[in-house]
Design goal:
Layout: H1 3-35, H2 39-47, H3 53-70, H4 72-81, H5 83-102, H6 109-139, H7 153-156, H8 159-183, H9 186-217, H10 224-246, H11 250-272, E1 275-277, E2 287-288, H12 289-292, H13 296-323, H14 330-340
Antiparallel strand pairs: 1-2
């Protein structure tokens, strides 16, 4: 296989991993106003991702670095044309990270509530904007002959793009609720399962519409059958996760939620192939895997680096999740609060 095509799928793998892992982080952050009925409950919710959120977030850094090195034309066009949405995502992630670290620095309800709001918006904005960005990448954007984006921010806020954003927003929210139910006990766990039951219905409706629209747009794609198969897998996994949640099968619900995200994001990359950024102005203005990639020498060096380091990263992350696999109980949070005082 040509190395440029290999790296297209490696970039796809990195973004799939990011959306699965940071996706439930976003969902946990968005769940705080709905599940955190007191400070103990809010601390319980935040502590479910306390040991792993920053590790999950590094996936987007690796994905961005891989994109920059393997497809510099794609990276340049994407980050210049989508500058404002990506800047908002960056600022939101910074605000969220700061909030996790500073929330507990003062024993003040006002102080904590302020950072709770930052966690919520720092989770909701990226969850929505990532969907808008990827929907537009797959659908195509106005690129001129020099592969430069000639639209505006409002160009990105088209019906398909907004639907993509709403789909990722609700999907990540549901994914986070499954994770909270899996990792907590008591009232928070019960409320998370109940809320996931209601949110799941909205998510299923939005995801069905978005996937159907994606399949329709990809009718002429070389990997059309793959788009159809992955979309069907995503739909079945999403429905299965909702059923599992209704039967109090938290682990199954969370696993099927992860499968949903994997299949849905993979379907987008299948629909995109062999382009990396299609142009809506002229076929010759589109960026493809071949005309956007780095040299073979660069890709060869990167391939060896990925072969050596990617398994180590995956092993370390797996070990981290194993170490922090236990539930975050309310009793443990209350005990820690007493010791602190």
């Amino acid at each position: 296989m040509d190395l440029a095509y290999l790296w297209f799928w490696i970039v796809a793998f990195l973004f799939v991993g990011y959306f699965v892992l940071d996706g439930f982080d976003f969902g946990v952050g968005m769940s705080i106003p709905f599940l955190g009925k007191d400070d103990i409950a809010r601390r319980q919710i935040i502590n479910t991702i306390g040991p792993v959120w920053d590790l999950n977030e590094t996936w987007v850094i690796v994905a961005g670095a891989a994109l920059f090195a393997s497809f510099p034309e794609w990276y340049a066009t994407l980050f210049s044309g989508f500058y404002l949405p990506l800047l908002v995502i960056l600022l939101a992630l910074i605000a969220r990270g700061v909030s996790f670290e500073y929330r507990h620095q003062r024993d003040s309800a006002t102080w904590k509530r302020s950072f709770d709001r930052m966690i919520f918006f720092g989770s909701a904005l990226p969850a929505f904007l990532w969907g808008v960005a990827f929907a537009n990448i797959v659908q195509g954007v106005p690129l001129d002959a020099d592969h430069e984006y000639v639209g505006t921010v409002l160009t990105l806020l088209n019906p398909y793009g907004i639907l993509g954003g709403l789909t990722t927003l609700t999907l990540f929210f549901l994914h986070g609720l499954y994770f909270v139910a899996l990792k907590t006990d008591g009232q928070v766990r019960t409320d998370a399962r109940r809320l996931a039951g209601r949110a799941g219905l909205v998510t299923i409706a939005l995801a069905a519409l978005f996937l159907a629209w994606t399949v329709a747009n990809a009718a002429d794609a070389p990997l059309f059958l793959g788009v159809v198969g992955l979309s069907a897998m995503a739909a079945l996994a999403l429905i299965g996760s909702w059923v599992a949640n209704s039967r109090d099968r938290e682990g199954t619900a969370f696993a099927l939620g992860a499968v949903t995200i994997v299949a849905a994001v993979a379907a987008l990359f299948f629909a995109l192939f062999p382009y990396v950024m299609p142009s809506t102005l002229a076929e010759g203005s589109s960026l493809t895997i071949e005309n956007a990639s780095s040299t073979d020498y660069t890709l060869t060096i990167m391939s060896w680096a990925a072969l050596i380091f990617l398994p180590l990263i995956l092993a370390y992350q797996g070990w981290t999740y194993w170490v922090f696999r236990k539930r975050v109980t309310r009793a443990r949070i209350e005990k820690a609060a007493l010791v602190a005082h």
